[in-house]
Write a structure and sequence with these properties.
single chain; about 425 residues; alpha/beta; 13 strands
Length: about 425
């Protein structure tokens, strides 16, 4: 961007944002990091939770001086300390899934944030001339706040779908009425938006089938080259299989542990990085494999990558219960490491298509521990690690390039609104 060009302003509504951690914040943070390179600056409206599952201070430091961040209070479970003990107590872990069923709040428990966010945004629009408003979902209630702001302030609206809104496997409805109401909410948002962005073709096509909206774009998850060390880190002495990411949404280590049981006489170890990774230790102990398992718990995004890069192979898992539209951000960080990938995932998922397209790894059935063990054993015999430079062969997933694509789409709706 030339210095003489006017910087365009985006009002970016994202309930989840650093210093909150986990995968739901990385995409938004990286967009904000690279937008100035393409003539846009983001003003972020986000929540101010009293508690949360994990925090990533390093990612916050990375973008705090590049983005104007406004933190808005709310009346939802993350803002009410009373709920913390129900979500974080192992004895009451079943309650941590109550938001998934969306049985008492439309479209999700974060609906308590909408009136506060929308009111704040409208007042902010009276002070700053924005060129567009964009919402990152889920939570899908953020899209309702964006719709209100778009209507009140006359701004073109873009919705970035990180997950599908209507998906009975991923977000099951409690009743037919819940399903109908969420469908009506999605229809209202989609048909009043200037741009619909999805992370993959499967989510895009499902929205097109339901609503036939005309302006859509697929902008994938990606990896940020800045997150990867330039030098190869020292490998562990033991051949290491690493799983990076939280064991949530039905993701369990069982199939890998069964594969390790077949390889128990090999010099091999599995390292788990992420929220709830201690569950792998408990399961391994039951199988007599505790000595072959290491749990590092939740780490910042950069630290998790550093640890993963000490490994020989990366294991990727998606539960069949999650549906075929899931395409997690960690897969693209896996690509960024340049290490071999073995994915225990359904063959019809978008993630499987990415691996076939890039040739970066092998796909096996999520319950096939025998083939998984054979793939690992082949790599042990080869005793070779892929060069880190191989990540340069996947430039389409570079976060900066993806942000450029986003800004091109925002330019279009900005000009169309004049």
């Amino acid at each position: 961007m030339k210095k003489t060009e006017t910087v365009k302003k985006l009002l970016f509504i994202s309930y989840f944002f650093p210093p909150l951690g986990l995968s739901g914040v990385q995409r938004q943070a990286k967009f904000c990091k690279y937008m100035p390179d393409f003539g846009w600056s983001a003003t972020v409206l986000t929540s101010r939770p009293r508690w949360y599952f994990a925090f990533d201070r390093k990612m916050y430091e990375e973008i705090r001086n590049k983005t104007d961040i406004h933190r808005i209070p709310s009346l939802d479970h993350f803002h009410l300390p009373f709920f913390e003990k129900f979500f974080l107590s192992p004895k009451k872990e079943k309650l941590s899934n109550f938001g998934k069923s969306r049985s008492f709040a439309f479209p999700d428990p974060e609906i308590g944030w909408v009136p506060f966010c929308a009111d704040y945004a409208v007042r902010l629009c009276g002070k700053i001339k924005f060129d567009a408003v964009m919402c990152s979902v889920p939570p899908f209630s953020s899209a309702l706040a964006g719709l209100l702001v778009s209507k009140r302030c006359g701004l073109p609206l873009a919705i970035d779908f990180r997950d599908p809104w209507i998906d009975e496997k991923l977000f099951p409805s409690a009743t037919k009425y819940h399903a109908w109401f969420n469908l009506e909410l999605e229809k209202s948002v989609v048909r009043n938006s200037s741009l619909i962005i999805t992370i993959n073709e499967k989510i895009r096509n499902s929205i097109l089938e339901r609503h036939g909206t005309k302006n859509t774009a697929v902008i994938s998850h990606g990896y940020d080259p800045d997150d990867f060390p330039e030098m190869v880190l020292q490998s562990r002495e033991t051949f290491t299989v690493c799983h990076m990411g939280s064991l949530l949404r039905g993701r369990k280590p069982d199939v890998l542990l069964r594969a390790l049981d077949l390889l128990r006489f090999e010099n091999i170890k599995a390292v788990f990085i992420g929220k709830n990774s201690d569950s792998a230790l408990k399961t391994a102990e039951e199988k007599g494999l505790k000595v072959k398992i290491e749990s590092l718990g939740y780490l910042s995004h950069k630290d998790a990558i550093k640890e993963a890069m000490k490994s020989d192979v990366l294991w990727f898992y998606i539960s069949p219960s999650e549906g075929d539209a899931v395409s997690t951000g960690k897969l693209f960080d896996y690509l960024g490491t340049g290490l071999p990938i073995i994915a225990s995932i359904p063959n019809n998922t978008d993630a499987a298509e990415v691996l076939r397209k890039t040739g970066a790894g092998d796909v096996v059935s999520p319950d096939d521990h025998e083939t998984l063990s054979e793939k690992i054993k082949d790599l042990i015999k080869k005793k070779s690690r892929r060069s880190l430079n191989s990540r340069r062969s996947h430039p389409d997933y570079d976060r900066k390039k993806l942000t450029g694509s986003l800004c091109e789409e925002l330019d279009k709706i900005r000009y169309e609104s004049f």
